[in-house]
């Protein structure tokens, strides 16, 4: 296997595994930019994964190929509902945001596993029959070298992730809504003085993160795992948080960081088929994504400054 063959093998896999991380990380960017720390992305992904798989199994016969796409919408709704718990606790009740996020993770896992147990009387669901399909992008797939690398056997979910990243960049940095969002996260008192509702903006941001986190969990479950159990989402939400920090709270930075973590995840799965890497003990490849996550969260790769009001509850009129 030549070096080019290795790239043809590993890069599509990296993009495939990065898609759910990209969406969830961008959801985290929205909340942090508004001044809310969302540690609960893992729990939101879990609920999104569980709800999409259960929906897929129940309605695949009626909806056919549309099932996984409608499953994304279902996961988005459940993600928003779960995120509202964080919004009420952290924004309205001004509870500690880190503790609230951790509680959300525990709640999401407990509710998902309990629901699966009640419906299927076992710890995990059956495997789904309707998954996201792959396709070649016309014209682009014929480009020498990069065509086969980026535009052959592409998942529509990967395209969705890139589109969301670009749209998020435009919304946050090129629209009045984005300006208000960033103002609320940097100096909420000044934003409030100018007539911007801090509470409203933070609620909207948390709900956006819930929607994107739910979709991220659904993509992981329906495109990668194929079923749902207690260990289906095992750290991907925290990888998304690491990608957000690594990307310096910027949508395109989070995109690049998520691709990096997606590469690590892909390597842990397909590494046994790649020359030289196949000689590395499998356990090292399996722990690689989590080690990189810890290093990123520990600030090993550069320093990044979070929005100034991130994690600080806003009390109207108080500096």
Automatic annotation (TrEMBL):
It holds the Pfam family BPD_transp_2. The keyword Transmembrane applies. Keywords: Cell membrane, Membrane, Transmembrane, Transmembrane helix. GO terms for cellular component: plasma membrane. GO terms for molecular function: transmembrane transporter activity. It is found in: Cell membrane. The chain crosses the membrane at residues 6-27, 39-60, 66-90, 102-120, 154-173, 203-222, 283-301. It is a multi-pass membrane protein. Signal peptide: none annotated. This is ABC transporter permease. The lineage of its organism: Bacteria, Bacillati, Bacillota, Bacilli, Bacillales.
